[in-house]
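2024-03-11 09:14:02 INFO worker-7 job=invfold-0412 stage=load source=structure_tokens
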């Protein structure tokens, strides 16, 4: 009986080994051929599916309002600075400040515009909201006065207007700092507060010296 069982056992063993070989071969085939395909096709294909909703959700209404309001606010500061840079007989310190404000806020406008586009949000505030209603914004008459002023008078007007303008921006930035969700937007709001509070102190000193 032992002689009859041995061939049977050998046959069974061979069958088991064959099955193991098939399983191992199919596993190796999967890892050898399918895995690279998964690395190069499946993973990138699945990444946007998970990251796109995350990116879209990585902001809230406060972030959108902050960007929509701060863009025209910054744009007016750049416009005011441009006016000063075209004038004659303006103290060099005031001209330097106008240059610094324009250099800082221009790129921030581009950054915030990019955020709104990536969030699929409108670049402008909803209808019924005007930029002139925002805190610190100059009205048309204020801008005309600055445009026509010259020399030291223009410097004093610019500094007084820009202090009020900065104070409005700081209020908006502090709201974003408290209510915002997007990391970059909140960080920018903190940067604006720090930079513009320092510039207010600088402008107050310049006013005292005029």
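2024-03-11 09:14:09 INFO worker-7 stage=emit residues=210
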């Amino acid at each position: 009986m032992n002689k009859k069982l041995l061939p049977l056992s050998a046959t069974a063993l061979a069958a088991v080994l064959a099955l193991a070989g098939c399983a191992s071969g199919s596993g190796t085939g999967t890892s050898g051929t399918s895995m690279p395909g998964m690395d190069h096709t499946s993973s990138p294909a699945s990444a946007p599916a998970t990251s796109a909703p995350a990116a879209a959700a990585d902001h809230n209404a406060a972030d959108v309002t902050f960007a929509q309001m701060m863009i025209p606010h910054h744009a007016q500061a750049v416009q005011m600075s441009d006016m000063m840079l075209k004038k004659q007989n303006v103290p060099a310190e005031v001209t330097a400040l106008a240059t610094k404000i324009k250099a800082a806020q221009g790129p921030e406008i581009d950054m915030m515009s990019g955020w709104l586009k990536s969030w699929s949000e409108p670049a402008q505030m909803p209808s019924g909201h005007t930029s002139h209603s925002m805190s610190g914004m100059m009205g048309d008459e204020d801008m005309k006065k600055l445009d026509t002023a010259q020399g030291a008078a223009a410097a004093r007007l610019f500094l007084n207007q820009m202090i009020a303008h900065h104070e409005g921006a700081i209020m908006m930035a502090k709201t974003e700092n408290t209510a915002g969700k997007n990391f970059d937007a909140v960080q920018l709001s903190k940067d604006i507060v720090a930079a513009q509070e320092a510039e207010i102190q600088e402008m107050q000193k310049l006013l005292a010296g005029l």
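2024-03-11 09:14:09 INFO worker-7 stage=report msg="The chain is about 80% helix and 0% strand."
2024-03-11 09:14:10 INFO worker-7 job finished
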